[in-house]
């Protein structure tokens, strides 16, 4: 069975006017030039604010979120991010009580129930109550775990996302999915709990390792493929500027990517909060991407890099079915590789296919697969055979073996 999601996916518009380079914007304007993207679902209404200088102005931005109260604030972060970004954040609380930091070591191995318990105990011993507010300062790991603690501490308290990686800004901080890993798999324990707000301070990306930036951009490429030819074209044409932090137009070009990606995520979440239909399209590239992460023990590739390879495989599958033109397939593949290098890895195609059967997106034994039909439009199909998947994985692995493939 298949159904075309393009009918419900028509009204997306990316900003069509290029934003001026950051250096051309007067300082006063820069401070107020943040873009605010509203998100509204049956269970929550909030804004995602994107721009520079958000951490140093955080205190006044939090005020309107909790009218009539002065909640006690706790920042959940990791030691590395706290060392880099606590100063601007704490600076905004000069005249008021500062947030109490609770630090969690970086790394996926700490996104576990044991950390949830430890942090919850620390919150309790520090006097956190139902009126307290948690701030998640960090990447997707800090965001997912903080959101989960906020969902269950005293049966639910509010939290705010302060994402500091590109992946967290364009993807994980938006949409209310929270959770931790089990030994049996990633994100197997969790809940839906939306933040009160998201403040994506683009200044924080200045300290992000370039490899993390490029990996996060794979999720933006995905957003363009599933829903926005304009975003995809921008990523194609402005790759040099987006990837070069020293380029004068870098921040403006990157901010445009972030804003457009968040708009897409917000729109999809709005249409399908609990992933019963349209939200599934966000999983483009993720069936084989998750299999690649599992096959390489979650150690060799960053999530976005695995999604890059997974997207290439899904694109090969659509081209082989004849539902995607060779021209669009080539553009997708070239753009994904342009934002590489995607690390090479060793795995058998048959093992990758076997690993897709445990993908938690599978329901009642049928595998839902997201395939592009053109750049900006995808379909959800449920009749992908193991043979097709095997062929797609083999063709992706053959591409990987080509010398001089990537920048
Ligand atoms: N909830 C969702 O909807 C959703 C969606 C996608 C991914 N995720 C989850 O997100 C997680 C991955 O998130 P991630 O890619 O942000 O990884 P991450 O949180 O591990 O951050 C990557 C690395 O960058 C460091 N870092 C973060 N910000 C920095 C900064 N500004 N400067 C320097 N270093 C910085 C971190 O300490 C870490 O070492 C996974 O656990 C994944 O399951 C969740
Ligand atoms: Zn992802």
How does this structure look, described?
The protein is an alpha/beta fold and 407 residues long. The model is unreliable at 1-32 (pLDDT under 50). Helix 4 (113-125) packs across helix 5 (140-152), helix 12 (303-321) runs antiparallel to helix 13 and helix 12 crosses helix 15. It contains 15 helices and 12 strands. The strands form 3 sheets. A 7-stranded mixed beta sheet has the order 2-3-10-7-6-4-5. A 3-stranded antiparallel beta sheet has the order 1-12-11. The chain has 2 domains: 43-208, Rossmann fold (3-Layer(aba) Sandwich); 215-400, Dehydroquinate synthase-like, alpha domain. It has helices at residues 27-32, 58-62, 79-91, 113-125, 140-152, 166-172, 210-227, 229-237, 239-243, 250-271, 286-295, 303-321, 326-338, 349-356, 386-400; strands spanning 2-4, 35-41, 44-51, 73-77, 100-103, 133-138, 159-163, 177-182, 185-192, 197-201, 369-374, 377-381. Helix content is 43%, strand content 17%. The chain binds nicotinamide-adenine-dinucleotide (NAD) and zinc ion. Residues 78, 80-81, 84, 106, 108, 111, 138-142, 144, 164-165, 167-168, 171-172, 175, 177, 186-187, 204, 207-208, 212, 303 line the site of nicotinamide-adenine-dinucleotide (NAD). Residues 78, 80-81, 84, 106, 108, 111, 138-142, 144, 164-165, 167-168, 171-172, 175, 177, 186-187, 204, 207-208, 212, 303 line the site of nicotinamide-adenine-dinucleotide.
Helical stretch tally: 15
Strand/helix succession: EHEEHEHEHEHEHEEEHHHHHHHHEEH
Unreliable runs, pLDDT <50, ≥5 residues?
Answer: 1-32
| Overall CATH architecture of the largest domain | Up-down Bundle
Mean pLDDT: 90
Main sheet specs? 7 strands, mixed
Number of strands: 12
CA radius of gyration: 21 Å
Terminus-to-terminus distance: 39 Å
CATH topology of the largest domain: Dehydroquinate synthase-like, alpha domain
In CATH's first tier, which class of the largest domain applies? Mainly Alpha
Distinct compounds present? nicotinamide-adenine-dinucleotide, zinc ion
Q: How helix-rich are the residues, as a percent range? A: 40-55%
Give the overall shape: globular
Relative strand content: 15-25%
As laid out across the biggest beta sheet, the strand order is 2-3-10-7-6-4-5
């Amino acid at each position: 069975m298949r159904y075309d999601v393009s009918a419900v996916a028509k009204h997306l518009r990316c900003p069509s006017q290029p934003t001026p380079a950051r250096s051309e914007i007067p300082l006063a304007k820069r401070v107020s030039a943040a873009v605010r993207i509203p998100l509204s679902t049956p269970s929550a209404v909030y804004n995602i604010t994107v721009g520079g200088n958000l951490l140093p102005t955080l205190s006044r931005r939090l005020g309107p979120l909790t009218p009539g109260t002065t909640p006690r604030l706790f920042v959940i972060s990791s030691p590395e991010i706290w060392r880099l970004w606590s100063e601007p954040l704490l600076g905004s609380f000069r005249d008021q009580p500062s947030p109490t930091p609770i630090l969690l070591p970086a790394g996926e191995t700490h996104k576990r129930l044991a950390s949830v318990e430890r942090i919850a105990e620390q919150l309790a011993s520090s006097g956190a109550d139902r009126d307290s507010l948690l701030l998640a300062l960090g990447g997707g790991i800090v965001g997912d775990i903080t959101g989960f603690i906020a969902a269950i501490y005293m049966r639910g308290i509010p939290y705010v996302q302060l994402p500091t990686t590109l992946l967290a800004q364009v993807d994980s901080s938006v949409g209310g999915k929270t959770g931790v890993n089990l030994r049996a798999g990633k994100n197997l324990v969790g809940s839906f709990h939306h933040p009160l707000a998201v403040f994506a301070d683009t200044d924080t990306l200045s300290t992000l390792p370039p490899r993390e930036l490029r990996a996060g951009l794979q999720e933006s490429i995905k957003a363009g493929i599933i829903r926005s030819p304009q975003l995809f074209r921008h990523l194609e044409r402005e790759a040099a500027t987006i990837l070069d932090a020293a380029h004068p137009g870098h921040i403006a070009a990157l901010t445009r990517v972030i804003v457009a990606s968040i708009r897409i995520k917000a729109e999809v979440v709005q249409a399908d909060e609990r992933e019963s239909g349209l939200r599934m399209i966000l999983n483009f590239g993720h069936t084989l991407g998750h299999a690649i992460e599992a096959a390489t023990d979650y150690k060799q590739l960053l999530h976005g890099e695995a999604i890059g390879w997974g997207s290439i495989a899904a694109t090969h599958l659509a081209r082989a079915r004849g539902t995607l033109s060779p021209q669009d397939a080539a553009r997708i593949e070239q753009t994904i590789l342009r934002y590489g290098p995607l690390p090479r890895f060793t795995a058998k195609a048959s093992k990758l296919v076997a690993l897709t059967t445990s993908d938690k997106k599978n329901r009642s034994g049928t595998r839902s697969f997201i395939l592009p039909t053109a750049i900006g439009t995808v379909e959800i199909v449920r009749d992908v055979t193991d043979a097709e998947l095997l062929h797609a994985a083999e063709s992706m692995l053959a591409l990987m073996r080509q010398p001089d493939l990537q920048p």
